[in-house]
Amino acid sequence: MLDYLIRRILLGLGTLLLITFVVYGLIRVMPGDPLLVVMESMGPDKQPRPEDIERMREMFGLNDPWYVAYFEWLGRTLTGDLGNSLSRKAPVASLIAERIGPTLMLSVSSLLLTYLLAIPMGLYATARSNRLDERVLSTALYMLYSLPSFVAALLLQMLFAIHLRGTPFELPLFGMVSDNFDTMSRGEQLMDLFRHAVLPVTCYTYASLAYYSRFVRANMQEVIRQDYIRTARAKGVGPTAVLLKHAFRNTLIPLVTLIGLTLPTLLSGAIILEQIFSWPGMGKLFFESIRERDYPTLMGLMLMFSVLTLLGQLLADLLYAIVDPRVSYS
Amino acid sequence: MTTPVIAIKNLRTYFHTEEGVVRAVDDISFRLDEGRTLGIVGESGSGKSVTSLSVMKLLASSAKIESGSISLLGKELVGLPEPQMRKLRGATVSMIFQEPMTSLNPVFTVGAQVMEALRLHQGMSKSEARQRTIELFDEVGIPNPESRVDSYPHQMSGGQKQRVMIAMALSCDPELLIADEPTTALDVTIQAQILDILRRLRDSRGMSILFITHDLGVIAEIADDVLVMYRGKMVEYGPVLDIFENPKHPYTKGLLSCRPRLDSTYRLLPTVSDFMTTRDVVQPDGTTEVEVVEKKLTEADIKRMTTHGRGRLLHPKSELAAMGHPWDEARHPADTTAVEEGTTPLLEVNDLQVYFPVRRGVLARVVDHVKAVDGVSFKVYRGQTLGLVGESGCGKTTAGRAILRLIEPTGGGVKFEGQDVGALGSNDLRRLRRKLQIIFQDPYGSLNPRMTVESTIVEPMNVHGLGKSRAERRDMAAALLEEVDLKPEHLRRYPHEFSGGQRQRICIARALAVEPEFIVCDESVSALDVSVQAQVLNLLKRLQESRGLTYIFISHDLSVVKFMADMMAVMNGGKIVEFGPSENIYANPREDYTRKLISATPDDDIEQIRQRVEQREAMRAANA
């Protein structure tokens, strides 16, 4: 087991090196650079002098070939320094740190909500397979699934922030907190946060809800056709126990893969949704740093996502050994 | 008259499918008394499993009991509400299934799965149930039951899993045990052990068994009465001795004759179609009924099957003498021949080794080896059949694959027509593969479900550049299908439209597509019903004669190997323990292991059955 873990971590470090190298190259071949982006936003009369541009290019390391710049970045990163953002004049690490909270708030609550709803729904759909209520539920979920979340977000915003304005159901249009947040009491602050989070969390959840519940259902239906389910029924086990005990334990095996894949998305945020709701999270930071060609921030974020992806896979593999006795790493 | 354990009257179970109604069970009646065993025998699709699932009321949702009565200890099961039925399942009537590999839940320990039934029906506490499970494991012959209860299914062999299934089924002392093909997926040696356990437990507990199988040989070993099913109907029903001694229905006669028996001299096996022809008659309600017309098999016909066909072709006399089986004119049938001295063998295997590495540590270093094939040597001459026989895990399949270099051998050499196979580069190897083909065990898994029969058969022709045009290749494929007794119009169909036996014929046609000289048949008939097995074995023999093929025939069943093979190699633990002419090995086995394989073969000799029946009657009289 320990051998396996050590081997996996060594392999992971190698993979990480390769990923960051390729990603750095890709980022640098994107057209434009941070200075050009800034200059575009300035009026033609306020353009800096060529010698100033040259000085800044030198300062930001833009004159070096990208692979030289990569190794500089790598050297710094290995000492624990992710560098400073080019456009925000702040260390990348602290930029990421301040965005983690809001993003986790959205992603963790919607992930929990998804699992809490999707698993019972999938089990229910299996138990009531092909009956009217199951078909209605499945069709409804499928329709929701095919509705893009940004469309749903706009529709929800229209409904709750505009049509229901003035009613107790009114919800804020965007942002994470109201302007007068600092003057509120502790309880009011929580309520304010909650009211701001309802719409983004709903949008975040419903799309994955359809996906997860169908996933649970599809896997359950595969499992209940197996011989050992017939064995369980032949020894007199009731339908509920057959479903929850004998079948569901086996469905956990593919669910674990999904959990591993979910880990990086917990922090990557939902780029579009955070934009629509002006949620100050990771997705928004990611989007903006691409637009601003903010190389250090982009690399910091990519590094974090890569680590999480690799960790997620490792976690999934380790969980396999727990839920599936046939898997062992010794 | 006492209440029968189970009495079925005029049972009809139909499947309602999109293509119409299928009469899976059509008017079946029987009774089974305490302590007795009823064998239900029939081929795949005869309705025997549907009968047993009707008793358990575990039918698929498309199946429905249309009419009739099932009475379990006087209690009517047809129409019994599901919650009450659930109380009977596992307690009064329990069941074991064909596939021990998939019948246990992989994520629970085997002990927990047996304990579940005990806690459910007998209200035992966890520790009581565990104690009882250990006793049950001991009773069904699982070694170290105290530690084995905590094993997971994947840590056990097929035979042990089937023992767990038996322990589970017997845990709540049921009055009736339904055993649905419980030994079909197992080696003959394991089959013999499982039959032994079932007989012993039946007699010690006074339990009744409904034993379902396609193999009359197994029936002879265990049943008191026999019910023969054919296409949903009951064609014969009576005491076991009557059925074996004096079968009335042509289907029963066919089933009895098509088993390759160890002591028989058949060169081609009689098949069911030698005894009868069938005709589908469409009924007014749209369903079809089958009409059976008996064919009279004359003495001359039977004689033809024992003398017609090729005689045995043995190794050169000097080699026979060297292996301690000297040529003996008097003992061999007149048309047995020996290969001429000095002939180059078609295939020569020298000290073949296949080791699988066992890896440990961070760097996954090889710390040990599993010696699957450990120094195997033999020769096969052109036109011969060499049989490789042994139990699961003896290395016979690995040896077969290593010969074709489907697995790279660890050591030793394989020569084909004097050419060293191991030294060939990939292009030469591909050219050689044209001459060497293999037919696998599982006709379901070894055909690509997304490829038509035509593309399946034509693909190897394309690889080896056979046939000038598409049209020509299609014609060749059509001719191959006719050669294996299928029809050219089957070319456009997909594998799922065929039965197991038909699929195996497609696999044979695919192997023949490249006009090979040498074919490895790896358990090629083990997954088939005995009646279908006979047809496929005959086909392989016929093809051998018409095409001059050379076979290595691999099986766990010594009776099948003896029927097919000129020379036989008995394998155990990766080594050949005995090698010689098939008839000699059967008649005079020298190794205990060979004797064990021979005695495991089901014995349906009339005198044996008579003895068993008399013993059973004496036992019943003593108990009464």
UniProtKB/TrEMBL annotation, chain A:
GO terms for biological process: transmembrane transport. It is a multi-pass membrane protein. It is found in: Cell membrane. It comes from the Bacteria. Residues 100-320 form the ABC transmembrane type-1 domain. It holds the Pfam family BPD_transp_1_N. Keywords: Cell membrane, Membrane, Transmembrane, Transmembrane helix, Transport. The keyword Transit peptide does not apply. Its main location: membrane. The chain crosses the membrane at residues 9-27, 104-127, 139-164, 193-212, 252-277, 297-323. SUPFAM superfamilies: MetI-like. Belongs to the binding-protein-dependent transport system permease family. PANTHER family: DIPEPTIDE TRANSPORT SYSTEM PERMEASE PROTEIN DPPB-RELATED (PTHR43163:SF6). This is Glutathione transport system permease protein GsiC.
TrEMBL record, chain B:
SUPFAM superfamilies: P-loop containing nucleoside triphosphate hydrolases. Keywords: ATP-binding, Hydrolase, Nucleotide-binding, Transport. GO terms for molecular function: ATP binding; ATP hydrolysis activity. Its EC number is 3.6.3.-. Signal peptide: none annotated. It holds the Pfam family oligo_HPY. One of its GO terms (biological process) is transmembrane transport. CDD domains: ABC_NikE_OppD_transporters. The keyword Ligase does not apply. InterPro entries: AAA+_ATPase, ABC_transp_ATP-bind, ABC_transporter-like_ATP-bd, ABC_transporter-like_CS, Oligopep_ABC_C, P-loop_NTPase. Belongs to the ABC transporter superfamily. This is Glutathione import ATP-binding protein GsiA. It comes from Botrimarina colliarenosi. The gene is gsiA.
